[in-house]
Amino acid sequence: MPLRRTLMPLAVVLMGMSAASAHAETIQIVMDKLIYIPAETSAKVGDTIEWINKDILVHTATATNGDWNVTIAPNKTERLILKKAGTIEYFCRFHPNMKGRIGVVPE
Amino acid sequence: MLTKLTAALAALCLLTGTAFAQDGAKLTDPQIAHVAYTAGQIDIEAAKQALLKSANKAVRAFAEDMVRDHMAVNEQALDLVKKLNVTPEDNDTSRTLTEQAAAKHAELAKLDDAAFDRAYVANEIAYHKAVNSVLESTLIPSASNAELKSLLQTGLKVFQGHQQHAEDVASKFN
């Protein structure tokens, strides 16, 4: 009984997680020493991109097509939900030598 | 190493158009730390001058970025020298950089409006290029301490980013 009582909530949580991940995922991109890691990634519409800035400098993730512009302070994380399919090139406005690409497929 | 140092300093002379005095000896870590810190301070001062003189939105935004980034990098440099128990040591390279910056500051002070904006951004491109060249060919290879070397390598990427950013700003002048 105690075992069942412990496992039941866990099972509920796990079911919930798998249900959510079937629809949308969170993809992490680390900014470290002026590099987006990974520099290239793939995702689908509805997924969340999470940029984690490990540098001491402010960075941005700015889509070259103007679709989005995310500013990430040092040691902070910012999120963006992808709304459109397509290959998006992005860069840091403050350090344009930082470049990344996300291939977004339809949901 | 002497050849590399001479070549890098010669590049700096060509780019800045002024004589570059140095003693020809290999720089030590305390001297390298001093040069790197000085190079950052010079760019902060240049940006402050731009913020006082310029009304151009793109130029002001660029100058603000320079102040913020170079202050952050220099703070990290200060933390590192403290941790390593190293006292930055003044040297001919730092002195020459400072002298050249003072001359450039005076030259830019005489200009206004678009003429100032263009000259400031042009100098930012030339200055970052020159510092990158010295970092790449001299300071990074000469640094003995691994953490100092790593900080200089990150600094090089920051400076390269700034050079490109300055080139973008310059390309939008009519």
What does this structure look like?
The complex is a heterodimer of chains A (107) and B (174). Chain A has one helix spanning 2-23; strands at residues 26-32, 35-37, 40-44, 48-53, 59-63, 69-72, 77-81, 86-91, 99-105. The mean pLDDT of chain A is 87. In chain A, the strands form 2 sheets. Chain A has a 5-stranded mixed beta sheet with strand order 3-9-8-5-6, with no helix packed on it. In chain A, strands 2-1-4-7 form a 4-stranded mixed beta sheet, with no helix packed on it. With 107 residues, chain A is an alpha+beta fold. Chain A is built from 1 helix and 9 strands, in the order H-E-E-E-E-E-E-E-E-E. With 174 residues, chain B is mainly alpha-helical. The A-B interface holds A 33-34, 56-58, 74, 92-98 and B 65, 68-69, 72-73, 75-76, 153-154, 157-158, 160-162, 164-165, 168.
Short descriptors:
heterodimer, A: 107 residues, alpha+beta, Immunoglobulin-like, five-stranded mixed sheet, 1 helix, 9 strands, 45% strand, B: 174 residues, mainly alpha, 82% helix, 0% strand, elongated
Describe the secondary-structure layout:
The complex is a heterodimer of chains A (107) and B (174).
Chain A: H1 2-23, E1 26-32, E2 35-37, E3 40-44, E4 48-53, E5 59-63, E6 69-72, E7 77-81, E8 86-91, E9 99-105
Parallel strand pairs in A: 1-4, 3-9
Antiparallel strand pairs in A: 1-2, 4-7, 5-6, 5-8, 8-9
Chain B: H1 2-16, H2 29-53, H3 57-84, H4 92-109, H5 113-142, H6 146-171
Briefly, what is this?
The complex is a heterodimer of chains A (107) and B (174). With 107 residues, chain A is α+β, with helices and mostly antiparallel strands.
